[in-house]
Amino acid sequence: MTPNPILGCGIGLRFQHIDQILAEKPPIPWLEILADNYLTPGSVQQDYALEIAEYYPVTLHGVGMSLGASDPFNETYFQRLKALADRIQPAWISDHLCWTSAHGWVSHDLLPLPYTEATIKHVVQRIREAQDRLERRLVIENVSSYLQYQQSSLTEWEFITAVAEEADCKILLDVNNIYVSAFNHDFDPCKYLDSIPIERVQQFHLAGYEDKGTHLLDTHGAKVSDPVWGLYALALKRFGALPTLIEWDNQIPSLEELLAETHKAMETQIYAFA
Amino acid sequence: MPLLELQQRLISAIFQRDQLAAAANLVKTQGRLNSEQRVGIYRNSAHGILLDYLESLYPVSLELVGTEFFGRAAHNFIDQAPPTSPFLAEYGVGFAEHLAQLPALQELMWIVEVTQLEWARHAAWHTVNQASSDFTQLETLSAQEQAELRFQLPHSAQLLSSTAPIHSIWLAHQTEPYADKLSFEEIDLQTAEQVLIFREHRHLHQISLNHDDAAFLKAVQNQATMNELAEQFAEQLPWLFSIALQNAWLTGFTTTQPV
Ligand SMILES: [Fe+2]
């Protein structure tokens, strides 16, 4: 089975919308399935994911690989993810350049890594192993961050570029995350974009943040903000009209409102190349 | 510092408030936030993700105790029992027992019973599919097989025996117009209820059982043989069976001794 092409602007599949999508089959170019919620074989959840994949091109997006962790990989997680991917045949699988677990505890949050040469070595080896286990090339996403470690000696863009080059994986550029981290750590987001190798980037993410006064918080709970649309236009010019996905996880809106954001992304693409 | 140690320090700060300072040593102070505040953002964010999840798991309990009380109880629960699995749906078992320890709820154990019901719903929903039932082979059993004949509830079945009317309370907090729904004020909190929850395809059933049906399903769950059921329920048995079969409360049978 050849994976379906991923083109244009899609949405992240959220449980609240599944029944409506399956009943009405609205024209959505593609869907990103949050793999972690659908991994149990024979579960009603996985049945939903399989049914969605019958009608729409899909990618699988995870938060649980914990690629940057020092704990051993969770065997069950990888077995189930591989099994789901073999059934669904997603166009690609993505997860984050971060860690989520340590000490046997799982934070279910995306925690930043120290940007050092030693970390690059560690993460590259982990991504290679994950790619071998999944028998697929991975797509890794930049996360939002609220802290910088004392020991970090590289910028985030130097770090993600080195990791992607050495692990030979692709990059999912989350434009909102770049903007949030740029504000929180006072760097120039355009410089970040300009430093990422063009051919490594596979996909964009867009989402909304919340302004906390002292920092921006990546809540995925609002519309994409104006400055992020602006940064997205710049990203399109540099990397081309790559597949783009709207993420919305808190105060989830109606499917119609969510799809309206995808239309806005398509308009931005048209203007960017007009 | 090795990555392992750095990560252990940060995750300790996420799940133990008194570890914030140790993790803050790893972090730069920049802009308007000091290093401890920056680690605190992660503590809040990880707790926030888990709190949202627990609220989605226990919506009626949340309404009964209020957002503030629920939040405090949840934060303590998260610190005492951080998740250990990447499968989030496995998290949150034991929250009812955590509530049961709280002094404020000692006279309100019916709320804890509602929390148990909400976990049972979650567990039933996440139980994996089973093959559809087939009772046609029942007619061909030998006498020896008949002696060992036992019935099975759905794999997802959760049979709850509570001192409070948990099904009625749960219904009263739903927005959908269920037929047997009463308003919360109409419910007598002293009435015990027996509740069956199970999943059939994409539908979660929740039924308040009458005394006889509950006793019958309990006996089936305890692996009573056909002969034992006949002894316990006498002439009522055919009626109990037909009700259970009509409602898909039984999904199979075995003719071998349980292990
Ligand atoms: Fe993202």
Automatic annotation (TrEMBL), chain A:
<dbReference type="InterPro" id="IPR007801">
    <property type="entry name" value="MbnB/TglH/ChrH"/>
</dbReference>
<dbReference type="InterPro" id="IPR036237">
    <property type="entry name" value="Xyl_isomerase-like_sf"/>
</dbReference>
<dbReference type="Pfam" id="PF05114">
    <property type="entry name" value="MbnB_TglH_ChrH"/>
</dbReference>
<protein>
    <submittedName>
        <fullName>Uncharacterized protein</fullName>
    </submittedName>
</protein>
UniProtKB/TrEMBL annotation, chain B:
<dbReference type="InterPro" id="IPR018640">
    <property type="entry name" value="DUF2063"/>
</dbReference>
<protein>
    <recommendedName>
        <fullName>Putative DNA-binding domain-containing protein</fullName>
    </recommendedName>
</protein>
<dbReference type="Pfam" id="PF09836">
    <property type="entry name" value="DUF2063"/>
</dbReference>
<dbReference type="InterPro" id="IPR044922">
    <property type="entry name" value="DUF2063_N_sf"/>
</dbReference>
<feature type="domain" description="Putative DNA-binding">
    <location>
        <begin position="5"/>
        <end position="99"/>
    </location>
</feature>
